[in-house]
Design brief:
The complex is a heterodimer of chains A (581) and B (586). Chain A contains 20 helices and four strands. Chain A has 581 residues and is mostly helical. In chain A, helix 2 (13-31) packs antiparallel against helix 3 (37-55), helix 6 runs antiparallel to helix 7 and helix 14 packs antiparallel against helix 17. The longest helix of chain A has 32 residues, at 159-190. Chain A is globular and about 85 Å long. Chain B has a domain at 303-487 and 522-586. Chain B is globular, with a radius of gyration of 24 Å. At the A-B interface, helix 17, helix 18 and helix 20 of A face strand 1, helix 5, helix 6 and helix 7 of B.
């Protein structure tokens, strides 16, 4: 096992920077009267991004003391930091809103605590991205979860907020416990907590021991449930609508993006356990246990994907509350992400299979090697989905409250109404055209309308799913039929989703309302909205760069297990004839 | 001699880009002029539409002066878009025989759409004209796209502006209509999208070359057809059905047409013009561009069924139109009926019928756009589209009535007008197929369906002429109540524009609407209405009188698109019957 050394600290320099920023925010807020915690947070994020950028060496894998920095972790880390900066802006706006809700006279400190906690969350997420060791992975996940409880707790302004915080807390504990059991099972398989060692043992196993029979499925199932909680995927999806509804838009923006990254990373690392390294001493050698692991993995994840997207979209159809609706939509998007993971697992299973599946038709016998890479598609999808969804929450946070319904006479001052239902957005195109336009663009992107980023994400997911076993004819029960079915489910779901996204757009553009919005949610949230709009526009015009980066990252995790200084050749062209065996 | 068409330094490719970009530039200009109010906005939109039309017409002339060889595109331009991994999506544009007239029609109808909205749209005009111009760019793009994904991008993106056009400026049920239109079309086209991806992936797996280029795929799939056997999982049929899902909804072919009447009735006139005139055609264009050349065997299997559905659509659409009391709904169902002819002609798979179907796309585009425009003009004058409440329009607006009669005749296929040419070619081709192109087992079916097509002509004449009689002639029922100064969307807006003089022509009656006792109040076509209708009328006559102008240049491309499918169909019929008894169509 690579020992912890100075190098390890160099590798986690971005996380150190984030924790440092958190400390500055905490201590400065407590002792120095620092008021601008979120500026410290943004500075920390920028520093971490720069430090991470210095480490980015395309293709090269560096491992030290359980920390692995490869193209995958670099991608995830930088995406997390970028999303983190956007969410931080939304959260900062959210703080003003909460302060406004409490009335001008009430002093509301604590922004520094919130900012520091948020930066700690990012540090945890960043650790998850580069964890090559189960203990570090678990620690990273907890460093994501615990700040989330705190943030949810800090933002509670009414009973529903309290319920949201508690609900998330208890379910998160359950998910963590289940994931810990999975960690135990994996330790049982590998005799080590190092993922690379576990992978080596798993691939070497011939499956005759109890390991293949019990430990592999148990580890897979338990870890999948743990990841499903963070993704808000079935079977751990049901908390999302309540929690999103009960908390503010800032936390909703957080929950709908950042934990999903963690869930995706966990699944990616789990799938990668069974993948033989492309080069190295034991290249290509995969035993039956690993093959069984992968076969089970793609089936499980494919089913979860289909159920998750359908459940999320169908639930969303009936929601009237805006945040509940977006919670359901975020469940559905997790389902889309899982399609990519399932494809990655299936690709790995093909490579792990002892003999290439022979096609029934003799002329179709080219072996499918998963050239497109479901993992790249999932990462790309995540990167195209997140700015749009953060943008919607940013816009909602920015809009803040509606003007109250003034009564004539000297009655009591009517209560302020936070924008919470779809109907609250009625006529927004007339009262705040910029926000309405931005929300419409984000929603159309989430619906996957070309040429917006969501379309490019769905294009890559659908193409990767259709590509599975593309050389094998469609046959009942065949794996290809599964994935073609999955692609069709994805397409049908995209159409269902359009129905409720359009309802919001219709409310903004087709209805009219005499009551405008106050746009009192804070400038930061407005900036987040505009920044997301710029990102969406950039990806629309030029989808290539992000895709190339995601491909590099996806190949790094699903092409080979991270091994010390392994170079992974970027696959820039379709390789239809290559056979990995 | 034609040098003046192609000045040096202005390549056809940049010309094409300019045509597609012009409406977008115009949209920006219209938006910048928003502070100047309605007149400036609509004038800028009109100028943009006319300039785009002029540029497009010039490009069409350049095409006709130097037509590209078969399989090549005119004014081809190409730049990478999403390249990386296995994607090679390109911004690749060009025109060929299949797309030429539809490209021109899109530019032409956009002018009509702007001018019919001249008086009708006063609420938020900036948004309206911006969306109309964006829609024009998307429509031009669909027909110019040479990349599968780029085609799909434009195909899908046309929904967005029309969704807003219907939803904001439509009539009472507009929100429902907009959502139904969008979701229905999207659901179908997402399956089309998967089908297109499968085609690309299949080609990549077989030829080893990833290409999203439509022509490249067509050529390559001729060498590596998708499997059409149990061993191959009937992949070709699966892909055909996936493509059908989107294209059939778009056309619409009868069982999936239900979104169309609602969308048409609720849409503002300008939206209806574009919807009926161009957007419905994208489905047929998709069949011609993808299904027929790329999936010939599956097309051959499906052809009889789609032929039958087309014939069924003709009769069904006509019968439903017959009982409508809403004039706009009647025209909408006539669209369903007439698109049935196109489907029938396309899947008759004889050269004459396919060419007829391709021409009928343009014909129906002109006639239905003209009719929808006229219905909108009648609505602006009388605030009703209900046939029983209308009457005697000819006495008040003789020129409007004359135009209505002209487009009605075009629609029902009066000889000498464009509709006749298309319908005649389609029916001739269908009978040709029924007589001598199918196995005896299918002959009765084909004959019956072709006779349905003929019956549709009769029914079409019946419902259209009956409507003309009730609306244009007979006693005057509804006096004009002035122009629609605000669009009528149930804001209770009708009452506000009660009795002040309308937008009637400059020299006409400034006091129209005042005296109900006046025997005849003239409210004839205004200049902008002439501008909307006259270009269409010119082409209605031109195509009717000299169809060769429009058939000859595109004939090789259209025939080539159907060649493989026709051969596959003939082979299938041969298999059903000893070859000696089947007379092949040359």
């Amino acid at each position: 096992m690579p020992a912890t050394s100075l190098e390890t600290f160099v590798l986690v320099a971005p996380e150190i920077a984030l924790v440092g920023a958190a400390l500055v925010a905490y201590l400065g807020g407590a002792f120095l009267g620092l008021r601008h915690g979120w500026l410290v947070a943004l500075a920390g994020i920028a520093a971490a991004a720069m430090l991470g950028g210095c480490q980015a060496v395309d293709g090269a894998v560096t491992a030290s003391g359980g920390v692995v920095v490869d193209a995958f972790s670099t991608f995830v880390r930088q995406v997390v930091l970028a999303l983190g900066a956007l969410v931080a802006l939304v959260q900062a706006g959210d703080v003003f809103q909460a302060a406004a809700t409490r009335g001008p006279g009430v002093h509301r400190g604590g922004t520094c605590e919130e900012a520091g906690t948020f930066v700690l969350l990012l540090a945890g997420l960043s650790l998850v991205a580069c964890a090559g060791d189960l203990v570090l992975l678990f620690a990273g996940l907890e460093l994501v979860s615990i700040p989330t409880y705190v943030l949810l707790g800090l933002k509670r302004i009414d009973g529903r907020g309290q319920e949201a915080a508690l609900k998330y807390f208890f379910l998160s504990l359950v998910a963590s416990a289940l994931f810990l059991y999975a960690v135990v099972c994996l330790y049982g398989i590998g005799g080590s907590t190092n993922l690379q060692h576990i992978a080596t043992r798993l691939r070497a196993s011939d499956g005759s021991t109890g390991m293949a029979l019990a430990l592999v499925p148990a580890a897979l199932g338990l870890a999948a449930v743990g990841a499903a909680f963070r993704l808000a995927a079935v079977p751990m999806h049901f908390y999302a609508p309540d929690v999103y509804e009960g908390t503010g838009p800032g936390n909703a923006a957080l929950l709908s993006t950042l934990p999903k990254v963690a869930g995706l990373v966990v699944l990616a690392r789990l799938v990668a356990l069974g993948i033989a390294p492309a080069v190295g001493p034991d290249a290509g050698s995969v035993g039956p246990a690993a093959a069984a692991h992968l076969d089970l993995a793609w089936q499980l994840i494919a089913i979860l994907a289909a159920v998750t997207m359908t459940v999320g979209n169908v639930m969303a159809l009936w929601q009237r509350n805006l945040r509940r609706l977006l919670a359901c939509s975020s469940i559905a998007h997790s389902g889309y992400l899982l399609v990519g993971v399932a494809v990655a697992a299936a690709a790995a299973a093909t490579r792990a299979a002892p003999a290439p599946p022979q096609a029934a038709g003799g002329d179709l016998a080219t072996l499918w090697t998963g050239a497109l890479g479901g993992m790249s598609a999932a990462l790309y999808y995540l990167a195209t989905y997140a700015p749009a969804t953060i943008g919607v929450f940013g816009a909602v946070a920015y809009l803040g409250h509606r003007w109250p319904q003034w009564a004539s006479g000297d009655g009591p001052r009517p209560p302020r109404e936070e924008i919470s239902t779809v109907d609250d957005l009625d006529g927004l195109a007339g009262t705040n055209p910029v926000a309405a336009f931005a929300i419409a663009v984000f929603l159309l992107s989430l619906a996957g309308i070309p040429p917006l980023p969501g379309f490019w994400g769905k294009l890559s997911l659908a193409a990767s799913a259709l590509e599975v076993d593309w050389t094998v004819p469609l046959a009942a029960g065949g794996r290809r039929t599964w994935f073609v079915g999955l692609a069709i489910v994805l397409a049908v779901n995209a159409a269902i989703a359009a129905a409720y996204y359009l309802r919001i757009i219709a409310a903004m553009y087709f209805k009219s309302s005499r009551r405008g919005v106050q746009s009192d949610g804070g400038l930061a949230a407005g900036i987040a909205m505009l920044a997301c709009l710029v990102i969406v526009a950039a990806v629309t015009v030029r989808p290539s760069s992000l895709f190339a980066w995601a491909t590099l990252a996806g190949d790094a995790v699903s092409g080979a297990m991270p091994a010390a200084t392994t170079s992974v050749p970027p696959s820039s062209t379709l390789d239809v004839t290559a056979v990995t065996h | 001699m034609t040098d003046f068409l192609s000045p040096t330094g202005f390549s056809a490719a940049s010309h094409l880009v300019l045509v597609i970009a012009a409406p977008l530039v115009g949209a920006v200009v219209a938006w910048l002029l928003r502070a100047r109010g309605l007149p400036a906005v609509r004038q800028s939109a009109a100028v943009t539409a006319i300039v785009t039309l002029a540029l497009a017409a010039w490009l069409v002339l350049r095409f006709l002066a130097a037509p590209p060889p078969p399989g090549a595109a005119f004014a081809a331009i190409d730049a990478p878009w999403l390249t990386g991994g296995v994607f090679d999506v390109r911004l690749s544009l060009g025109l060929d025989g299949l797309s030429l007239w539809m490209f021109g029609l899109s530019a032409l109808l956009s002018v009509t759409a702007v001018f019919v909205s001249w008086q009708a749209i006063t609420d938020r005009p900036v948004g309206f004209y911006v969306l109309l111009l964006v829609l024009e760019a998307a429509m031009l793009g669909v027909f110019a796209a040479r990349d599968v994904i780029l085609f799909y991008v434009f195909f899908e993106f046309t929904l967005v502006p029309l969704f807003f056009l219907i939803g904001i400026w439509g009539h009472e049920e507009r929100r429902k209509a907009a959502a139904k239109f969008f979701v229905y079309t999207l659901a179908g086209s997402l399956l089309t999208f998967l089908g297109l991806l499968v085609i690309v992936l299949w080609n990549a797996s077989q030829s080893g070359v990833v290409t999203f280029d439509i022509q490249g795929l067509t050529d390559s799939l001729a060498a590596h057809p998708l499997p059409m056997s149990a061993a191959g999982g009937w992949l070709q049929m699966v892909v055909f059905l996936a493509l059908l899902a989107g294209f059939a909804v778009k056309v619409p072919i009868v069982p999936v047409h239900t979104w169309l009447p609602l969308a048409h009735v609720e849409a503002p006139t300008g939206g209806s013009v574009d919807l009926a005139g161009v957007l419905l055609k994208i489905g047929i264009y998709g069949f011609l561009r993808f299904s027929l050349p790329m999936l010939p065997e599956a097309t051959a299997v499906a052809a009889p069924w789609l032929f039958g559905l087309g014939a069924l659509g003709i009769v069904y659409g006509a019968l439903v139109a017959l009982v409508q009391t809403d004039l706009k709904r009647l025209v909408a169902y006539s669209s369903v009926s007439h698109m049935g002819y196109v489907v029938m002609g396309l899947f008759a798979l004889t050269p004459v019928a396919v060419e007829g179907a391709n021409l009928q796309l343009v014909n129906h585009g002109l006639a239905s756009a003209g009719l929808f425009a006229l219905v909108g003009m009648i609505y602006e004058r009388f605030h009703t589209r209900s046939i029983p409440n209308l009457g005697g329009v000819a006495a008040k607006a003789p020129w409007l009535a004359a135009m209505f009669v002209l487009f009605t005749f075009s629609s029902i296929g009066l000889p000498g007008l464009n509709g006749f040419v298309g319908e005649f070619m389609i029916l001739a081709g269908s009978f040709q197929r029924a007589w001598s192109g199918v196995a005896p087992a299918w002959q009765t079916f084909y004959l019956a369906m072709s006779l349905c097509g003929v019956a549709g002509v009769v029914l079409g004449a019946w419902y259209m002429l009956w409507a003309v009689e009730r609306v244009l002639f007979g006693p005057s029922r509804e006096p004009p109540r002035g122009a629609a100064q605000s669009h009528a969307v149930g804001h209770g807006g009708h009452a506000s524009h009660g009795v002040h003089g309308g937008h009637v022509g400059p020299g006409d009656l400034a006091h129209a609407g005042h005296g109900h006792e006046a025997p005849v109040e003239r409210c004839d076509l205004a200049w902008h209405e002439w501008a909307a209708l006259a270009p269409l009328a010119v082409f209605v006559l031109w195509i009717g009188l000299v169809p060769a102008t429009f058939l000859a240049p595109v004939s090789p491309a259209v025939r080539a698109a159907a060649t493989d499918s026709a051969a596959a169909f003939a082979a299938r019929m041969d298999a059903l019957q000893p070859p000696a008894q089947v007379a092949r169509i040359p």
